[in-house]
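Inputs:
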Amino acid sequence: MLNKWLNGFKKTQENILGRLNALVKIGPTINDLFYDNLEEILVTSDIGIKTSMELVRTLKEVVKKDKIKETQKAIEKLRELIVDIVKINNQKLNISKDELSIYLFIGVNGVGKTTTIAKVGNLLQKRGLKVMFSAGDTFRAGAIEQLKVWGKSLEIPVISQQEGSDPAAVIFDSIEAAKARDIDVLLIDTAGRLHNKKNLMEEMKKINKVIQREDGKKPEEIFLVIDSGTGQNALASAEEFIKNVPDITGLILTKLDGTAKGGMAIPLIKELNIPIKFVCLGEGVKDIDEFIPEKFIEGILGEVAN
Ligand SMILES: Nc1nc2c(ncn2[C@@H]2O[C@H](COP(=O)(O)OP(=O)(O)OP(=O)(O)O)[C@@H](O)[C@H]2O)c(=O)[nH]1
Ligand SMILES: [Mg+2]
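Outputs:
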């Protein structure tokens, strides 16, 4: 699994670590230019201007306090600062004992919601839990079929209605069916595109309400699925969702395998204060792992070479 992480993060690591190593090589002693270059590397690694500036400012304080002279040592301190940010983010999956748990997957179109449902469903099933899928994306052509194909190959039941039907009705049915069949976790797919953002947000609110009414509690997890390739733009998009669905319990970062922008996870954690619960590192059903801060840091920063 560690190899998969390291492979998945390869592009991000080359982007960040590669340039940090080059920076240490061109100047072994700390000076103003070092900080300027460092800030530029961080900003252009999708860590975002705000978080990058804060990191450099804190690093300057640490360097001063610890009387550090070498750029190599400064980079090691930077790594510790990033670890501190990411570590707040070590949260376990919420699962209710002895009653149905509901996981709702939301996010803009194409980020990987449906694929991630298959991955999480498979993971939970492997852990001995009884899972079920709910085809709550009745909007996009082919979405129901896509989930059914996953359900068939993973032997996970799928509750669906026709395309164009009311997602709230599908979700209602799914909760009833899940309870009747003693399911542990119901994973609900949702549409990512509904003409415009306003409709999408209204739909999300409505779905959330239906679940709370039918299940008598909030979903155990509301996952906001985010495409890592969108880089630092993901932050604004996530903030928009949070405004409309305030109960988001976790983020899932997809497509880390194809991007050099994995640094975007750092401002997301810092600014949103919502844990990243899973990372996805490929299209296959097994290309998913729980977010582990140490592994993430190793993935993006590796070991700083001497
Ligand atoms: N490389 C890679 N591709 C992924 C990953 N996750 C999803 N994909 C691909 O991204 C594409 C879109 O995935 P979907 O799961 O259909 O995305 P969605 O959010 O459900 O899309 P809509 O239903 O249209 O809103 C598919 O081709 C997936 O195979 C990942 O972690 N890595
Ligand atoms: Mg989908």
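Remarks. The mean pLDDT is 91. Strands lie at 101-106, 131-134, 158-159, 185-188, 221-227, 250-254, 276-280, 288-290.
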